[in-house]
Amino acid sequence: MSKIYEAYRKRVGETPDLTVELGRVGTVALYPMPDATQQGEFSQLANRLLEYKRGDRGAVIAFASTASGEGASFVSYNAALLLATAYHQKVCWIDGNFQTPQRMLADTDGPSLATLLQHPDRLAELRAAGYPQLIPGGRNLSTTRGHFADQKCQDLMRALRARFDFTIIDLPPVQGTTDTALMAAATDGLTLVIEQRFLKREVINHGLEALRSKGVTILGAVINKRSYDLPKAIYDRL
Fold it and tell me: What's 39's DSSP letter?
């Protein structure tokens, strides 16, 4: 258990009230709030993610599902929200899903991911308006996929590590496009989100092979249990 997590538990108890915390930071609520049980499990996930921050260097962590509809965006968003509000980390959540972008972020002020991939220096234009900071994919993100594996993407990852404690990037499903693996390879690692109903070993192994073939570091997996009203996140190593 991290020292940050232990200190937070002493301050507020076992689980935070994310509804209250969200109102405090004034950020956009992209998804319904998880219930009390789920909040506790997101605390466990955030605690694991805290281990990947090394000193003053921030961590860039990607999230993606094996197939569409498994809840990667919900999980990544709530992990970012908890890291920012409960553990007081400087967090950025980026919509990197060019297949199904977040419509609620379409009119967000500031540079989009599409813009930053072409001009990493424009990260300085982001306004500090509370954490997590939300960066939209941009209307033309799909046309910038050629930058996922070039030097500009590496420059952007370096700039994000310097500015934020954690950058969480929500990516499209692994099976849907090879671009997910290309983008994830530029990060510090990827957390795979799998829905319990789709726990098919051959499908998961195929996704893992596709990621590893591009040099992606697999940090672990989040299992979504859809027997609950909203996904219940449990972080576990593969």
Answer: H
Query: Residues 156-179: pLDDT tens digits?
Result: 999 999 999 999 999 999 887 788
- Which pLDDT score is estimated for 154? 93
**For residue 211, what are the contacts with CB-CB under 8 A and spacing of at least 6?**
174, 180, 181, 184, 190, 192, 218
pLDDT of 55: 83
For the chain, residues with pLDDT lower than 70 are: 1-29, 31, 103-107, 109, 196-200, 225-238
Handedness of CA 119, 121, 125, 129 (dihedral sign): positive
| Closest to 86 measured CA to CA, from 27, 166, 17, 167 | 17
Q: How many CA atoms lie within 13 A of 221 on its CB side?
A: 16
pLDDT of 1:
41
- Domain with residue 120: its CATH number is 3.40.50.300
Residue span of the structural domain in which 85 resides = 3-236
Provide the number of structural domains found in the chain.
1
Do β-strands 233-236 and 166-170 pair in parallel, antiparallel, or remain unpaired? Answer: unpaired
Give CA separation, 143 vs 87, 137, 148, in Å.
36, 11, 11
Contact 63, 191 (CB under 8 A): yes
Structure tokens at 91: 């967090």
Q: Provide the angle, in degrees to the nearest 10, between the axes of the packed helices 72-85 and 18-25.
A: 70
d(CA 131, CA 162): 16
Cβ count near 205 (within 10 Å)? 11
The phi, psi pair for 22, rounded to 5°, reads -65, -40
Q: So what's the pLDDT on residue 146?
A: 74
